[in-house]
Design brief:
Shape: elongated
Largest sheet: 3 strands, antiparallel
Radius of gyration: 23 Å
Number of helices: 3
Low-confidence stretches: 87-94
Distance between the termini: 70 Å
Helix content: 25-40%
CATH class of one domain: Alpha Beta
Strand content: 5-15%
CATH superfamily of one domain: RNA-binding S4 domain
Order of helices and strands: EHHEEEEH
Number of strands: 5
Length: 94
């Protein structure tokens, strides 16, 4: 009986490393979470992402919905209070 640890006589095929080119972003644009950290609105990108997902980060363009959303470097970011249950109900009714 063969052991499941035994190897075949053929060597494993060599794999080429997956080369991912960095995503190109337009000049003068940056991710929302990176901007928050740069402006000291959040201590880390993880915290910035959590704030954004919580719906408390706004700019002149509206509520920021994704940490990866590209914003101009001149965008004004502000933290608002967390949405209350009353606000959620008002949004559902409209």
């Amino acid at each position: 009986m063969k052991s499941f640890h035994s190897r075949t006589h053929r060597p494993a095929p060599e794999r080429e490393p997956a080369a991912r080119a960095p995503a190109e972003r337009p000049a003068g644009m940056e991710r929302a979470d990176v901007l928050m950290v740069a402006r000291k609105l959040a201590a880390s990108r993880t915290l910035a992402r959590r704030l954004i997902e919580g719906g408390v980060v706004r700019s002149e363009f509206g509520v920021i919905e994704k940490a990866s959303q590209l914003l101009p470097l001149s965008a004004h970011l502000m933290l608002s209070s967390a949405p209350t249950q009353d606000d959620s109900q008002n949004l559902d009714e409209t």
